[in-house]
Write a structure and sequence with these properties.
By secondary structure, the chain is α+β, with helices and mostly antiparallel strands. The protein has helices spanning about 5-10, 30-40, 40-45, 50-55, 65-80, 110-115; strands spanning about 20-30, 90-95, 100-105, 120-130, 130-140. The strands form two sheets. A three-stranded antiparallel beta sheet has the order 1-5-4. It has a two-stranded antiparallel ribbon with strand order 2-3. Helix 2 packs across helix 5 (about 65-80).
Length: about 150
Amino acid sequence: MGIRERARRGVWKRRVATRIRVGTDLVEVSDVERSVAEFGDRYLERVYTPREIARCSASGTPNCRSLAARFAAKEAVVKALRPSGGVAYTDLEIVTDSTGAPVMSFTGSVERLVQTLGLISSSLSLSHDGSYATAVYVALTRDHHETSL
């Protein structure tokens, strides 16, 4: 149906302008190991939520490879969403969906930011191998002007 026909019939579909935002990060597992060894619970509680700590410490000691992947994910989200100013890492939590896939959950100032940005959908991928952990975060948002927290 052409423009004239749409105008005659009054048929118009509203289209929402969108923006794809991508962030990625690479973390050396040894950096997380050093932070856990040097700062212990103070480091863990500043960067990770209680559920993340429990999930990554199920064996009784922190699994630094899993923690490093989660840290990379949090950094990837910050790079993708580009908040003005800092964020509390505990406002970002990696949870799993019903299939076991990682999903980013937001609270606090980051939740307000994603609402302002009009987050439509997102995808998170985590990986670790040997000495490194990595994450990629892709978000589809409404195309707004740059916003701040």
